[in-house]
Specification:
By secondary structure, the protein is mainly alpha-helical. Helix content is about 60%, strand content about 5%. The chain has helices at about 5, 10-25, 30-45, 75-85, 90-100, 105-130, and strands at about 50, 65.
């Protein structure tokens, strides 16, 4: 595979490396926080997924390609519609429906949640001086 085909998925490579480092205890909490943080940014802002912003057709969503769980497609209105729909007074059902609308979006959302929790946990462990590499 060429670098152009792998580059859009750099966050998955970092995520796999972070999970491997966590399982083998090769990296301390600060390093893991950095790796999981980078991967979290990829899931939220660059992962290739369908847009999913609501459109005028009843009960349908945009099928254009987008980048990240929080970003929409090339249409100006969709760029903020995704993030706004998740954070501005959403109901849990509507927010979960947007985050897990398709299998691809669901896996990306789950990856973002896992990396966010791992980042916060490793930052706390690093600040408290607990944990550490092998």
């Amino acid at each position: 595979m060429s670098g152009k085909k792998i580059w859009p998925y750099w966050g998955l490579v970092v995520f796999v490396f972070a999970i491997t480092a966590w399982l083998t205890s090769d990296v301390g909490p600060a390093g893991l926080a950095g790796l999981f943080g980078l991967s979290c940014l990829w899931f939220l802002l660059q992962a290739p997924i369908p847009c999913g912003a609501p459109i005028r057709a009843a009960g349908r969503s945009c099928r254009n390609n987008a980048r990240g769980v929080l970003r929409g497609c090339h249409l100006e209105q969709h760029k903020w519609q995704r993030a706004r729909g998740l954070f501005v007074r959403p109901s849990w059902r509507r927010a979960c429906g947007a985050l897990f609308a398709t299998p691809v979006t669901g896996l990306t959302s789950l990856g973002g949640i896992v990396t966010l929790v791992s980042t916060v946990l490793n930052i706390v462990l690093s600040v408290l001086g607990k944990g550490g590499g092998g």
